[in-house]
Each structure stands twice: as structure tokens, then as C-alpha cells.
Amino acid sequence: MNGDEAVAFAAKQAKVDVVAAYPITPQTIIVERFSDYVANGEVDTQFICVESEHSALSACVGSALSGSRVFTATSSQGLALMHEVLYLASGLRAPIVMAVVNRALSAPINIHNDHSDMMGSRDCGWIQIYAENGQEAYDWTLQAFKIAEDHKVLLPVTVNLDGFTISHAMEGIAVLEDDDVTKLLGTRKAMYKLDTTNPMTFGPLTLPDYYSEFKRQQVDAMDNAPPVIEAATKDFGKISGRQYSAVSTFGLEDAEVAVMCLGSIAGTARTVARKMRENGKRVGVIKLWQYRPFPTTQVANLLSNLKCVGILDRSVAFGAPYGPLCSDVASTKVLTGIQTKIFNVICGLGGRDVRPVDIEAVFDRALRHARGEPVEEPVSYAGVRT
Amino acid sequence: MVTLKELPTVELFGPGHRMCTGCGPAATARITMKALEKPAIIVNATGCLEVATTIYPETAWKVPWIHTLFENIAAVASGIEASMRKQGKIDSVDIVAFGGDGGTFDIGIQALSGALERKHDFTYICYDNEAYMNTGIQRSGATPFGAATTTTPAGSKIPGKEHPKKDLIGVCVAHGVEFAATASLAYWNDYITKVRRAAAVKGPAVIHVLAPCPLGWRFDTADTVKLARLAVQTRYFPLYEVEQGRYKLNVKVPKPIPLEEFLKPQGRFRHLFAPESKPALDELKRQVESNWNRVAQRCEETMKQASSSPS
């Protein structure tokens, strides 16, 4: 199946109580497949086919705070339209799982992949996971329910998968048995919910005397997430044989330079690195699965053994010193005092192919910086006409 | 119709909230909670009723209550309804969405349209005070022609709002809702009957209740109910219901009180009584008459159809 189908299948196996969603390319296959499950009676899910993404996520918030297990999916403009509801979901501690099929933002309109949609809502208080392929999208969707619904976390989670590159690419996906998924996830037990036998007020007006405390509790919840994520990946690993963590690496045992990235581009980077390593180049790849909360300690530990890292960003942070991923790495350097050289390459915007030669050029440049060449161009743009 | 004695004494919308003296929406919320017969879940749009009743760590609501955003209560209610359905609780709970006129006529109309089309089982109550009162009396799609607001001031060139009030019930009826009705705070037992009917129907129902705002309309806080009554008796705000497409006038007004009696106590219409504003006043009167005639005609048509069709 393709990536979208894999995600829909995961939501089905998770026995979600409510799905509220609105179609947008390249997420459409997720809602279409799920609609098939509903129409054929394969799921016992309330499926709300809403009139906008804003209402999709709003309905999810209503369902999640009523105690239900909730799933939705969107992309690009849809995520942008949800923007204010994203903050609502995290602020109200609604443990929604949402697949974001990453696609460029208008204008100009473009239906292909980059990460500007999710990065535009980066600080919305959601846990953010990036998948490299359909298998990872399936696996993380299942793990996401376990993370989101944990009472120590109670935060919504996005599982990001690259538009078309993952969403529409057919691959063999190893799926779990339904019973194993049920064993892994159980049914959701809500800590607080809209309940007529125990009336509570959700979403009160909160003024300067308490607002900061609410926000601080969200920070605490985000801080609580890493061990919960780790536990979820261990439980999942035992059942599936596929072990995840915050970060995935390749060749770092002896690498002097590396490329760091999110999502499907990691596959290309690994292929290039493998080839270069065969030619004696000591290069490696760092792929983040977990982008929020940012795995600062793990990244710092990895960086401390490297001389230079080229960081790939598939979105532009207009007017900022670096793209979003590179900004986080730069902050990590400041926080930990690591002297590793970094440089930022913006690539793959609006579905622009990132070719092996583009990645090879990043490795070559990193190797030159490792040998002493100063980083004179902190941000460059791969394969862009000027 | 229900009598005062029959109303529950329990106050599920409790005293001590910070709504203004003479607030129409506050009284509306209180009566609504007395009207509902099943345990209720309240979904409240951003607005006066929300900000002044749930200032953390206090709440006036003794039922499950949720505020999320301004424009999305119909969608949030859809989600709650779906969850209750999944839990098998849908028949034992009343899901009620409260939106002001701004949250309903304007910014929330898309979500409302979607929820009505999808036939979610909930009651939508629009408490209409005819402007964005919470943010300081700005015009909405529910503000009547000629009214002065802070964004349609009575200027020397433009005397108040230039556009007529939107027909909310018409919009809802066009969605084929089972039950839609207007109501007035002054006719409280008519309102209670309608709330109970709305809660009882399967699927969505809409009540559009006129809830005067002393601050925004600029009248004496003691006169809220009086103005709510005058709005009906001057034919300014016809009380009617539409059940399965059948129109019924609930309060007949054979001898309307002159519209001026409703307008004059209100500061928002004061400028219309200057001699140079006569054309604007005449236009408002024309719109009020036209609206009444439209509603009356539909009610008459329904009666004719009922008498001509075999029972």
C-alpha cells in the first residue's frame, strides 16, 4: 500500500472512536480509505465529513474532550486553516493524533512536498514526528496514540509524512495483527472529560493572574513527553520488531561529518553516504524522528563527535538567520557549548527533487569545512536558479 | 405553556457571574438552563456570555461547559455529538451551543451551515443583541439598518448601518432543519416551549432569541424585558417557528405599537429622529414592515396548505 493507505490502516487498527476530516491533496487517500472502512462496516467509528479543516480539528477537540480516541489528517493550506485550532487542541490538552501529509504553502500554489506547512505551525504545542517512508508513517501513527493519550503527556501529536514521496508511493508495509494493536493501545481512558455526572468547565477565560501557569503546565507536559515516547517505542518494538527512538543515525560510529534532515530525504542521504563511505569518506546521516520536543541532548551528543554538519531544511524561515531545523541545532550548540561547525542548505521546496548529487555536494562541503575551510555561506539554496 | 411554578428552582447557570446589570443574554442563559429537561452539555462561543461567566478559577456553570473559539461552536458540538453517539449517550443528553449574533450570523455561519447539513443532533441558540457587544459595540450581520455602532457611527454623511439585518432563520430553513424559531426574552414561556421542542427533535434545531443589551443599545438597565416585548409588539422582531418547513406565527400583532416606541428609548437609534435622518428612519420602517409581511405571508401559506390538504 502507499503511505496514505498505511496511515488510514493504522487509524483503523487503533479503533478510533471519531474521525473528523476534510479532503486536501495529497492527504485525500487517507480520508478516502477511511470512508471505505466506514461504508463497509469495517470500523465502529463516527466519521464526520466536515466542511473545512477548521471545523475538522474543532470537531476533533469536541470529541477528544468528550473522552473519545480521535484521529484526523490534513496537509498544507488545511493545516494553515487549522492554525488557531492547533493551539486550542494543545492548550485544552486534547490528545488528538493527526497525520500531516507535508505540502508546500501558497502562494504560488503548489501541491508537492516541502515542510513549510508544519514548520509554519511549529510552535503550536503539538508533539511532532517525521516519518521517512510509509512503514514509519504506519508505525508512528500507532505509537502516536500511546504517546498522546498518556496522562503524563495529554498533548496532541502530528505524524508528518512527505506529500507524494511517501503519501502516494507504493511500498510493502509490515502491519501488525489487529489483536496486537489492541493489546498495545487498549481503549482510551480520559483523565478529564465533558461528563454530565461530573460537570467541569473547559476553556475558561484566563487572565494574567493564571495564564502563565497554564502555559507552564503545557511546557511541563512537553518535557514529560520524551520518556513516554521512549516507553511507547519500546512497547512497540517488542511487538513489531521495529525499534524507534528520537533520532536515527547512519555511519556515525566513525563519521567526521554528517547531514541532518527530516523525512523522506534521509533515504537519499543514506544512499549517498553509503557510496561515499565505500570510497573511504567518513560521512554519516542524522535523521530526527522526533522534532518536537526537540531532542536537544541526543543531538548535542551526536554533534560533539562530528567536525561539521550540513543541515537540510525543506522550508524557509523568512528573515531568520537559518531555516527552522538549523535554528534548533544552532540553539543546541549555544546551550551545550559544542563547537561543531554547521551550515544550512534549503532544498526540496515545492517538491523540487533533491538529487543524490545535491546531497553529495553537501557532504563534500562539510568535509572541506571539517578540514578548515571557513563557513562563509551559512545558508545556501540547493539547485535554485537565481 | 409552562408556568413559573413549574420551572425548576435549581440554578444551573449560577448567580455571581459578571454579566452586566440588565443583560439580556444572561437572562436568556438562565431561562435556557431551566428549560432543558435532560442533563446538558453547553458549548459556548467566544463572547460576553463566555468571558463574563467563566473567569478562571471561577465558573457560573454547574453543567459540563466548554469554550473553544469564536467561530467553531457548531463544529465542536458536532464532535461532542459524535462522541456521545459512539458512547451510546446521545439520547440521554442535550447538547446546546450558545453563540452571539457575531459568532452566528458572521464568523460562525460556515461551521453552523456544515453542522446543520450533516444533521447533528444538537440545539443551536443564537442570543442576538444585534452587534459585537463584547468587543465594544461593533456592527454585525445582525445589526439592523440605521443603528449606530462603533463601526457604523451616526455620522454627518452616513447615518448608522447601511445594510439590513440578515435573515438567520431563512438560512437555517434553507438547510432543511426540522425546527427553527425566533424568540424573545420577554415571552419567556414561548421561549421555554421552543427550547424544549428544539432539544426534543432528532437532528439540529436553531433558536434565534432577541436579547437586548443595555450597554450597546443604550437604554435604562431596568427596561431590558420591556424592550424585548416592544420589539415583538412593534413587529420589529416577529416571533415564529418553522417546523418541517411549516411556518407558524407564535405571537400575533394585529395592532402594532408604532415602531418609534421601540426605537426612541435606545441611544443607537437617537440620530434617526433628527429631521435630516427622516429618509433613513423611513427605510428602517419599510424594512421592518417588509420583514413582517414576508413572515406573515409564509405563516398564512402554511395555514392554507394545512386547511386544503386532507388530514
How would you describe what is shown here?
- The complex is a heterodimer of chains A (386) and B (311).
- Chain A is α/β, with parallel strands linked by helices and 386 residues long.
- Chain A is 41% helix and 17% strand.
- Chain A has 2 domains: 3-240, Rossmann fold; 247-381, Rossmann fold, CATH 3.40.50.920.
- In chain A, helix 1 runs parallel beside helix 7 (134-148), helix 3 (53-64) packs parallel to helix 5 and helix 7 packs across helix 9.
- Chain B has one domain: Rossmann fold (3-Layer(aba) Sandwich), CATH 3.40.50.
- Chain B has helices at residues 24-35, 48-51, 73-86, 101-106, 109-117, 168-174, 188-200, 214-217, 224-233, 259-263, 278-308; strands at 40-44, 65-67, 94-100, 123-128, 179-184, 205-210, 240-243, 246-249.
- In chain B, helix 1 packs across helix 7 and helix 3 (73-86) packs parallel to helix 5.
- Chain B starts with 23 loop residues before the first helix and ends with a helix.
- The chains are: A alpha/beta (386), B alpha/beta (311).
- Chains A and B meet through strand 2, helix 3, helix 5 and strand 7 of A and strand 1, strand 2, helix 3 and helix 5 of B.
Could you give the topology of this structure?
The complex is a heterodimer of chains A (386) and B (311).
Chain A: H1 3-13, E1 18-21, H2 28-39, E2 46-49, H3 53-64, E3 70-74, H4 76-81, H5 83-91, E4 97-102, H6 116-120, E5 127-130, H7 134-148, E6 157-162, H8 178-185, E7 201-202, H9 211-240, E8 247-250, E9 257-261, H10 265-278, E10 283-288, E11 290-292, H11 296-304, E12 308-313, H12 324-336, E13 341-346, H13 356-370, E14 379-381
Parallel strand pairs in A: 1-2, 1-3, 3-4, 4-6, 5-6, 9-10, 9-12, 12-13, 13-14
Antiparallel strand pairs in A: 5-11, 8-10
Helix pairs in contact in A: 1-2, 1-7, 3-5, 7-9, 10-13, 11-12
Chain B: H1 24-35, E1 40-44, H2 48-51, E2 65-67, H3 73-86, E3 94-100, H4 101-106, H5 109-117, E4 123-128, H6 168-174, E5 179-184, H7 188-200, E6 205-210, H8 214-217, H9 224-233, E7 240-243, E8 246-249, H10 259-263, H11 278-308
Parallel strand pairs in B: 1-2, 1-3, 3-4, 4-6, 5-6
Antiparallel strand pairs in B: 5-7, 7-8
